Sequence to fold (216 residues):
Amino acid sequence: MIHIILADDHHIVRQGLRALLEAEPDFAIVGEAGDGLSALQMTEKHKPDVLIVDLMMPGLDGLEVTRQVHQSMPQTRIIVLSMHANEAYVAQALRNGATGYVLKDASAVDLARAIRAVIAGQKYFSPPLSEDAILEYMERFHNAAHDPYESLSRREREVLHLVVQGHTNAEIAQILSISPRTVEAHRARMMRKLGLHSQTDLIRFALQRGILPQDK
Fold:
């Protein structure tokens, strides 16, 4: 039996995915999450074979969830579910540890095929995405300038994601179960490491890096 967790902020999407996947006799949905932090907690609790995570979610986005799950639970295979057929997003998902990238307009057959592929140790990309094109893109940007985001600690990245979503320091403190003063310290270090000086700079950085979708 292949144990699966679904992480998507739309309940109706999770319901649809559950119905489609549970039609497969060897798939079992062991948990659902509606935001990035819950997805991390659910994955740590159940240690599934496969995590299916939406690219854009509140709290932490799918790329950051992928990074943290891959670092702490490398045995869990990760499939990113997205409406964006964008090489930059796919490449970042792979760098963060995903082995599958499925578009939201793909068929149920595609998603089931993706799950079986990653369990077998293979990569899977929804058509029209091409593994060769993605790897070529990654190679092209391999020698690009150092990404300052990579220098952030796990907590600093969590604070960054919550700040750009509009949460106050007090709200972030409650979400992360830390003190407001600790949030302020993480926020200051994060801004310094990124070389940013204002909220406007931070939002611009988040848009450029795909932490916030361009249509927000």
About this structure: The CA atoms of residues 7 and 53 lie 5 Å apart. The mean pLDDT is 89. The first strand starts at residue 2 and ends at 7.
